[in-house]
Sequence to fold (124 residues):
Amino acid sequence: MKRLILAVSLLVFSIAFVFAQGGNKVDAAGVEFWTKFKAAVAANDKEAVASMTRLPFLFQGRELTKQAFIQKFAVLFDAKAKRCFEKAKLVKEGEGFEVFCGKQIFLFDKVNGAYKFTEIGVND
Fold:
């Protein structure tokens, strides 16, 4: 009887562990979004990146319209960020995910059910 209880306990623990690990992964839609987003950034496709961004976009205390976002593209996505994006790992955060690039965190969340680039934060 003790062996049966131990076996069932181990099985329950194993299942809980597997589900907990799966909960930390970015879903397929997020991975697909990231693939398109980083490709658009690498290609300097400002229009495509803007379409994948929640606008207005808050940057340095200012709300950027689509046109202002496009004008700031080179500042938002400099060479260092582009290099980081090539090898970046996605980190699940709530319903979205984050990408850590040195002192910056690029945040992506679901907006009206679709992933969008929503914010740049400080990695302290």
